[in-house]
Amino acid sequence: MKIVQKALAFVGLLSLCGLFIYALQDAPTDENFETKLINDYNVYALQIPDNLDFAGEPLPLSNPDIYERMDRELLVNTYWQSNGLLMFKRAEKYFPIIEPILAKYGVPDDFKYLAVIESGLTNAVSPAGARGVWQIMKTTGRENGLEINENVDERYHLEKATEVACKYLLRSKAKLGSWTLAAAAYNAGTAGISRRLKEQQVTNYYDLLLGEETGRYMFRIVALKEILSHPSKYGFNFRSKDLYKNVPTYKVEVDTAVTDFSKFAQNFKINYKILKLHNPWLREPHLNNKSRKVYQIEIPEEGYYQ
């Protein structure tokens, strides 16, 4: 019995030694850690396309300054992978709403990428007070017919806000002469861009010396256009079912006050949260409507939120 116990103890000791040696061989030394890191994760320099444009207006990529600035934005947006995937997902949901409105006003389709960099296709709020997907200021919204008050803020109404953006861009294009300058003016103001062109005695955005935000603006737009147009080229992999889809809705006209939107929502077999998701421009849980204005409220088709 003692002989058997000693034999078992010896076998156990050998096994323990073997495990110890194996563990040492697999331990994370500097050398094998670096090898594993290199094999598991790679970061590549990007090949800048020979020809990039915005709304048919080419970027002068032969200019080394323009090349470097374009390279920066492609790198930043390619390797910010989580944000990139969200842009693909949201674009599938919101571009089908934005694109026909741009076409209706004769604004190039590339301007949908302006909305991407303005807000990430969310109802963002800027420190300066801009609101919604198109980041419209209160004065600009009111000048273009949007209702903006504590009860209703149509800057959060995607269709109406897109129309306001189109009107602004068309006026800027008429004054400044190019779609690129019109896009830059969306960030810095038409008067601001016009003044800088005059001061610096140039006629092209890419010849202007601008502040950090406006100086990066067009490069960011073009980078998002390039990446969203060629996902696999920049390492983004997803299936159609991974993208966000719009929930079908129908419109209900309201020309009176609504005292309680929670009760209103229940009439359509939804709750207040769902009503607000589809009508973010309704800012309070009631509608004053003293003027008896006709509002169109989006109601999701039955069954999508069961």
Automatic annotation (TrEMBL):
Cite the InterPro entries for this sequence: Lysozyme-like_dom_sf, Transglycosylase_SLT_dom_1
The record's annotation in SUPFAM superfamilies points to: Lysozyme-like
What positions does the domain Transglycosylase SLT occupy?
A: 104-204
Checking Gene3D superfamilies in the record gives:
1.10.530.10
The UniProt keyword set, sorted, is: Signal
Q: Name one Pfam family in it.
A: SLT
Keyword Signal set for record: yes
| Name this protein carries in UniProt | Lytic transglycosylase domain-containing protein
Q: Which organism is it from?
A: Neotamlana sargassicola
